[in-house]
C-alpha cells in the first residue's frame, strides 16, 4: 500500500504543477503545442525517475555536506543522455524544445524530489515516486498543451484544423497562465466537492 501511495501521490494529491506549483518555467515555455508538451513531459519523467533511483541507491555513501552537488551531477548525467537521444532520434522535437531540455538539470521538480524524497527513502519507493511525479507532470503539461494549441492555433497535435478562429493569446505566455489558473481552479473545486 505504501508503494502505491508513492506512485499515486504525484499524479493528483501532490501534483508538481497544480498543487506544489513547481516546474512552471518549462511548462509555460513549451506547452504552446501538444507535441512539444508531450516531448518535454517524457524527457522530464525519464530524468526524474532515473535520477531518483540513482540518488536513492547512493544516499548512504554521499556525505550530507555535498549532497546537492552530487544530486546535480546525477541529474545532469540523465539530462545529457536525454538530450543526446532526443537529438539523434527526434531532431525536430529537439530543435523545438531548444534550451529547455538542458535546463531540466535545474528543474525544481527534479531537484526537489531528489532532496525531499529520493535522499530519504528506499530505491523502489524513490523510483515509483519519480514515475508518479513524472506522470502527473505529463498529465498537466499535455492537457495544457492541448488546450493552448486548440484555442490558440486551431490544431491538435499539429493537425486537423478546427473551424473557429483561434485566439493568439492562448499560445503566448498569458495563455499558459490562464490555462494553469483554470486547471487549478477546477482541481480546487473538485477537492472542495469531495471534502
**Strand share of the residues?**
under 5%
Poorly predicted spans: none
User: Helical stretch count?
Assistant: 8
Order of helices and strands: HHHHHHHH
Work out the number of β strands: 0
Kindly provide the radius of gyration, computed on alpha-carbon positions and rounded to a whole number of angstroms.
Answer: 17 Å
Number of domains: 1
Looking at the structure, what is the overall shape?
Answer: globular
Q: Roughly what percent helix?
A: 55-70%
Helix/strand/pairing category: mainly alpha
In this structure, how is the largest beta sheet organized? Answer: none
How much is the average pLDDT?
Answer: 90
End-to-end Cα distance, whole Å, is 22 Å
What structural keywords apply?
195 residues; mainly alpha; 8 helices
Amino acid at each position: 500500500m505504501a508503494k502505491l501511495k508513492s506512485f499515486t501521490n504525484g499524479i493528483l494529491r501532490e501534483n508538481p504543477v497544480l498543487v506544489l506549483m513547481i516546474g512552471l518555467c518549462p511548462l509555460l515555455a513549451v506547452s504552446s503545442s501538444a507535441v512539444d508538451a508531450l516531448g518535454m513531459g517524457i524527457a522530464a519523467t525519464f530524468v526524474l525517475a532515473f535520477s531518483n533511483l540513482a540518488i536513492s541507491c547512493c544516499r548512504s555513501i554521499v556525505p550530507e555536506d555535498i549532497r546537492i552537488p552530487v544530486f546535480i551531477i546525477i541529474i545532469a548525467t540523465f539530462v545529457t543522455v536525454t538530450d543526446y537521444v532526443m537529438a539523434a532520434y527526434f531532431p525536430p522535437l529537439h530543435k523545438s524544445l531548444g534550451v529547455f531540455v538542458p535546463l531540466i538539470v535545474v528543474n525544481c521538480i527534479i531537484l526537489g524530489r531528489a532532496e525531499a524524497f529520493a535522499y530519504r527513502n528506499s530505491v523502489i519507493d524513490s523510483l515509483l515516486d519519480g514515475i508518479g511525479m513524472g506522470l502527473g507532470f505529463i498529465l498537466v503539461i499535455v492537457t495544457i498543451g492541448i488546450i493552448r494549441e486548440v484555442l490558440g492555433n486551431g490544431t491538435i497535435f499539429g493537425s486537423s484544423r478546427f473551424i473557429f478562429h483561434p485566439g493568439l493569446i492562448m499560445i503566448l505566455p498569458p495563455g499558459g497562465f490562464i490555462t494553469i489558473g483554470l486547471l487549478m481552479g477546477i482541481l480546487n473545486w473538485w477537492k472542495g466537492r469531495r471534502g
